[in-house]
Design goal:
The protein is mainly α. Helix content is 50%, strand content 0%. The chain is globular and about 35 Å long.
Length: 107
């Protein structure tokens, strides 16, 4: 994970880069999905920051709201997202869901 001294700068720059409304939907969805995956393994303070950041992405880019409340999102074993794909357009992020955020919730 990011060292604490660079964390705020990283999120500040990431927020600036992803604030454009002219970004393709697949790109924003792929970033939201990767940040959600990072939140599972991150320490609690970083995880909270990541979840708030994802929420802001969902508010700013309404086109990725399909990642929330997707039918069958509880089926983690069949997640179509390709984490190892380097080209974001080929990751199938829009066919996936943000189940990682649901995992972080307390019962």
């Amino acid at each position: 994970m990011l060292p604490a001294r660079f964390r705020s700068r990283f999120f500040s720059l990431l927020d600036k880069f992803l604030s454009s409304t002219h970004l393709p939907t697949y790109l924003v969805a792929a970033f939201a999905k990767r940040l959600a995956a990072m939140s599972i393994h991150a320490p609690p303070d970083v995880s909270l920051t990541l979840i708030v950041f994802i929420r802001n992405l969902l508010i700013r880019h309404a086109t990725i709201s399909c990642l929330v409340n997707r039918p069958g999102q509880a089926e983690v074993a069949r997640d179509p997202y390709l984490f190892d794909e380097s080209e974001l357009i080929k990751t199938a992020a829009l066919e996936s869901s943000l189940w990682e955020v649901q995992v972080r919730r307390r019962p």
